[in-house]
From TrEMBL:
The keyword Repeat applies. GO terms for cellular component: adherens junction; catenin complex. Residues 1-18 form the signal peptide. GO terms for molecular function: beta-catenin binding; cadherin binding; calcium ion binding. The chain crosses the membrane at residues 687-708. The lineage of its organism: Eukaryota, Metazoa, Chordata, Craniata, Vertebrata. It is found in: Membrane. SMART domains: CA. SUPFAM superfamilies: Cadherin-like (SSF49313). This is Cadherin 16. Keywords: Calcium, Cell adhesion, Glycoprotein, Membrane, Repeat, Signal, Transmembrane, Transmembrane helix. Its main location: membrane. InterPro entries: Cadherin, Cadherin-like_dom, Cadherin-like_sf, Cadherin_CS. GO terms for biological process: adherens junction organization; calcium-dependent cell-cell adhesion via plasma membrane cell adhesion molecules; cell migration; cell morphogenesis; cell-cell adhesion mediated by cadherin; cell-cell junction assembly; homophilic cell adhesion via plasma membrane adhesion molecules.
Length: 732
């Protein structure tokens, strides 16, 4: 929390006009401020557009401010970065502007005056007179013997170690240590050590003690005192850093030196504290000397191989214990690590992963150079040079029909065809491939796994299917409806075979082909086609039993001008009901029943929605067959009311327009339409019912008022008559 006197005064400036100069801000700061820096002085009211500009701080001369001031661009605070001295400069005139990168001023300049408040930190101009008393005393320094201190001494500090004495009065003692150490002296000349000493850090100190008067003047030359730090076994042996793995070839003889350890101890050299011996911890040896893979010399730290053989590829981490005090009880120890890598020799022959491949079927017309099979061989050796392999065809290829290609270091060989196959000459081949190591092999020779047999079966080739034409052409009016038959693709192959037809490059999606019969029809309306244009697609025919056997032919469509469109004959259709939100049912639309062409089987109807965009958005029409279509809602919600949907029906050159009346309504859970009920004839409306009710209540109120008035007047008349005018009741 900053003290209250550090909050600086800031003059509040009212909002000025854009053309007016901002009023000057005044800030005061005490000189030689001893708090934390930076010290925030005042916050400037920068505009919100400040994020697009750069805050510039300068002096009153316009130059960049080189003084101890800065602006925080995030908070808009003016801050000072160090203490100020009024005697050096009493005032600082600053100005703050907000500028763009091209030096255009967005805001300001805002002048800021910083005053440095004076503090009483200078001596006054008055003179002072002092009396100095000088006395001469005798030097009674007594030299001290060297002091021996044990390192890491566990006592209460500061710990008294010696005392010096000056016989005169008015004496003060000053102590210096070479090198600088944890020593101190008090007013009585007692010398102290203030913390534990370490002989490894510093084994000897030279202390100098001066006797001085109250004015800091020395009485005599300083007194020297030697402090010797005695060594203790307080350092752990340090193993050499773990380096790269030591590489040892497999099958190396016992006694081969692996490495030589040399741990270091920071205790006094030549002492028992620094005498190190070694012991192997891991890997643990098996029973007997013959079960050891490694041995270590306790004195020299030499690590050698034992009688147990090592395998190539092994990575062994040796753990060796280094102990000081020659391994005696109470000493320190460290574990040294040595990584050993057993390198490889070429003692394994390469072998194939699979000895039998195939049978592989190849058609007899396959091109030379085709890859027949890929064989993979492995070598248990680890050295890359020992894994290089050489391959050859050992037998089964007397005619040179096959060949091998491989990369020397890949271990994979490809069997390729280099001549044409003939089913009549050789319906099958058995090729035996052998693998050998390129480097000289150490140990036994190749085994049965060094050979692999590839079985190849030759297939007789069937000719591809043939079509009755190499190029097909058809003409169609651009107004042809979807489903119009253009032509039929037929086979001319003398061999009876089943074909499957397809269109390859029908980019516009205008055409479709029946897979079995080969009939080509229009898949949709030919929107975008122009009379005189041509449209080319590729018809592909595949053998159903042998899909790899196929042929193709081009189909060219010539677009013709549309014939004159006859006038549409609207035909009303009875009303139907559909539910909204949409449910899974629709309306069946039937084509005109009185059509002699359709009755005689000359072609089906084509159905389409009218050109109204709203109708096409809200409704969907799907052709069921040649005479009926299915009308459903395209949207989930359509306004509940009666809709008139135009449906265009075409057949050959004739066209009709059906006006389908559909009532869209809300439905109950059973799917029944709930229609709004109008006012029934002869029944009162809401307004008439309310009027009758109000009139009845009003008549009742008037009747009650009349009765109450009559009763009130009769009672008043009886009260106004004199008492003697009232007849006496007869006595019975």
């Amino acid at each position: 929390m900053v003290p209250a006197w550090l909050w600086l005064l800031c003059v509040s400036v009212p909002q000025a006009l854009p053309e007016a100069q901002p009023a000057e801000l005044s800030v005061e700061i005490p000189e030689n401020y001893g708090g934390n820096f930076p010290l925030y002085l005042t916050k400037l009211l920068l505009p919100r557009e400040g994020a697009e500009g750069q805050i510039m701080l300068s002096g009153d001369s316009g130059k960049a401010a080189q003084g101890p001031f800065a602006m925080d661009p995030d908070s808009g605070f003016l801050l000072v970065t160090r203490a100020l001295d009024r005697e050096e400069q009493a005032e600082y005139q600053l100005q703050v502007t907000l500028e763009t990168q091209d030096r255009r001023v967005l805001w300001g300049p805002q002048p800021v005056l910083v005053r440095v408040k004076d503090e009483n930190d200078q001596a006054s101009g008055h003179q002072a007179i002092a009396t100095v008393e000088v006395s001469i005393i005798e030097n009674t320094w007594v030299p001290l013997e060297p002091i021996h201190l044990a390192e890491n001494l566990k006592v209460l500090y500061p710990h008294h170690i010696a005392q010096v004495h000056w016989s005169g009065g008015d004496v003060h003692y000053r102590l210096e240590s070479q090198p600088l150490g944890p020593f101190d002296v008090d007013a009585e000349g007692n010398l102290y050590v203030t913390r534990e000493l370490d002989t490894e850090a510093q084994a000897e100190y030279v202390l100098q003690v001066w006797a001085q008067n109250s004015h800091g003047e020395d009485y005599a030359a300083p007194l020297e005192l030697h402090v010797l730090v005695m060594d203790e076994n307080d350092n752990v042996p340090v193993c050499p850093p773990r380096g790269p793995a030591v590489r040892i070839p497999e099958l190396s003889p016992p006694g081969t030196e692996v490495t030589r350890l040399s741990a270091e101890d920071a205790d006094a050299p030549g002492s028992p504290n620094s005498h190190i011996v070694y012991q192997l911890l891991s890997p643990e040896s098996e029973d007997g000397v013959e079960g050891r893979a490694f041995q270590v010399d306790p004195t020299s730290g030499s690590v050698t191989l034992g009688a147990l053989p090592l395998q190539a590829g092994q990575n062994i981490l040796l753990l060796v214990l280094a102990m000081d005090l020659a391994g005696a009880e109470g000493g320190f120890s460290s574990t040294c690590e040595v990584e050993v890598e057993v390198t490889d020799i070429n003692d394994h022959a390469p072998e194939f992963t699979t000895s039998q491949i195939g049978p592989i079927s190849l058609p007899e017309d396959v091109e030379p150079g085709t890859l027949v099979a890929m064989l993979t061989a492995t070598d248990a050796d680890l050295e890359p040079a020992f894994r290089l392999m050489d391959f050859a065809i050992e037998r089964g290829d007397t005619e040179g029909t096959f060949d091998l290609d491989w990369e020397p270091d890949s271990g994979r060989v490809g069997l390729r065809l280099c001549k044409n196959l003939s089913y009549e000459a050789a319906p099958s081949h058995k090729v035996v491939v052998v693998v050998r190591s390129v480097a000289e092999l150490v140990g036994p020779g190749p085994g049965p796994g060094a050979t692999a047999t590839v079985t190849v079966l030759v297939e007789r080739v069937m000719p591809p299917p043939k079509l009755d034409q190499e190029r097909y052409e058809a003409s169609v009016p651009i107004s042809a409806p979807a489903g119009s038959l253009l032509l039929t693709i037929q086979s001319s192959d003398p061999i009876s075979r089943s074909l499957r037809f397809s269109l390859v490059n029908d980019s516009e999606g205008w055409l479709c082909i029946e897979k079995v019969s080969g009939e080509v029809r229009t898949a949709q309306s030919l929107q975008g086609a122009q009379p005189g244009d041509t449209y080319t697609v590729l018809v592909e025919a595949q053998d159903t039993d042998e899909p790899r056997l196929s042929t193709s032919a081009s189909l060219v469509i010539h677009f013709l001008k549309a014939p004159p469109v006859p006038a549409l004959t609207p035909a009303p259709v009875p009303s139907r009901y559909l539910c909204t939100p949409r449910q899974d049912h629709g309306v069946i639309v039937r084509g005109p029943s009185k059509d002699s062409d359709l009755a005689s089987g000359h072609g089906p109807y084509s159905f389409a929605l009218g050109p109204n965009p709203t109708v096409q958005r809200d409704w969907r029409l799907q052709t069921l067959n040649g005479s009926h279509a299915y009308l459903t809602l395209a949207l989930h919600w359509v306004e509940p009311r009666e809709h008139i949907i135009p449906v265009v029906v075409s057949h050959n050159a004739q066209m009709w327009q059906l006006l389908v009346r559909v009532i869209v309504c809300r439905c109950n859970v059973e799917g029944q339409c709930m229609r709004k009920v109008g006012r029934m004839k002869g029944m009162p409306t809401k307004l008439s019912a309310v009027g009758i009710l109000v009139g009845t209540l009003l008549a009742i109120g008037i009747f009650l008022i009349l009765i109450f008035t009559h009763w009130t007047l009769s009672r008043k008349k009886d009260l106004d008559q004199p008492a003697d005018s009232v007849p006496l009741k007869a006595t019975v």
